[in-house]
Design a protein that fits this description.
Blueprint lengths: L1 H28 L1 H20 L1 H9 L4 H24 L5 H24 L19 H26 L5 H28 L7 H50 L12 H6 L5 H19 L7 H11 L7 H18 L18 H14 L20
Helix pairs in contact: 1-2, 1-8, 2-4, 2-8, 4-5, 4-6, 5-6, 6-7, 7-8, 8-10, 8-13, 11-12, 12-13
Amino acid sequence: MSELATQVGLLSIVSMWFALVLRARPALRQPHQRGLWLTVLAAAVAITLFQPEVVRRLTHAGIELHTVALTRNLIGVLSAGLVLVFMVDSTRVRRLRLVVAAGPTTVMAALVALDLLQAGHPRESVTSVQGPADPAFSYWLLLIVAHLAGDAVALVVCWSYSLRTEDRDLVWSLRLFAAGSVLALVFWCGYLWHLYGGTSAMLPYLSLIIGVHGCIRAASLLVPTATALVRSWSALRVTWRLWPLWRDLVLAVPHVALSSPQRTRLLEVLRPRSPLALQAHRQTIETYDALLDLQRFVRPGAYEEAERHARRAGVPDHRLAAAALAGTLGQARRAKLVGAPASLPRPLPGVEHGSPATLLGIARMWPSMTDALPWQDEPVEAVAPTRRE
């Protein structure tokens, strides 16, 4: 258990500092994210100072173990206080914010005073790097009550707000923060038991809990980044899969494209000429516009013929419609490229609204169905004049 707790603790430290560095610039620029970032920063420092290896390195550097523990406690109270400030900051009530900010400040001053009062008395030796800075009952009672109060309020407020907002990023950030607060409550209850009646055998479990708590705090900070990555991946996927169909159609109908396709699909995703989301959106619209234009070159019965061809080729039933559309568009594209005369548009089934899913389905079948229907430039038969009565 001790080894697992150490590994989780290391993971929590790395993840929290990674999240802090990654989110520093956007979070500090936005007031509604600044409080969360500062809260996680204080928690990261406190959790870092709780790790046995970190404490040992500091003590080997000449810093007293008592000083490390006291600093950890003060930063922990600051973290709990920042949670409360972060919670009430959205109320915009200045007096409430001042009262909440004064609470942690008073608690920190009281902890320092209680610690100094014990300076003239012999201290009990601290045998654990994760042990208390001072065994005085009033000191630890004040410290733990401050943490329990902050985490309890954070749990209630975060969960309540998450049920009232429709912003998915905010919902997940608040719920993850609430989950971290639950673990913090469990940790401080367990730590109180350890200090006054428990055994040192509890420490690895408490270390594991606080380590998982740190990972969840980091996750709450990284929700916007994770969402942005998912959106970028979706845009990249659309750009990659749609590219062959988009390229062939806009080459046949060049006036629908804002810019001509690059030489290869790889260049299109590695050197995009616009943000990926915008590029995917643009390619979707341009593909649909080209499709509408090519409907003027669709031959009668082409869709049904392409569907029969796809069925004979063993295309699964759920892809038959996309395969038939791909074959029909392939024939219409070649007709326009060779200069065939246009006719009245023949609307193709299932593409009325240009659904991205529909276009991606056509793109999937495009390589195998592009040349499925033969096309040849047949001479237009002369129309016999109508006999007048």
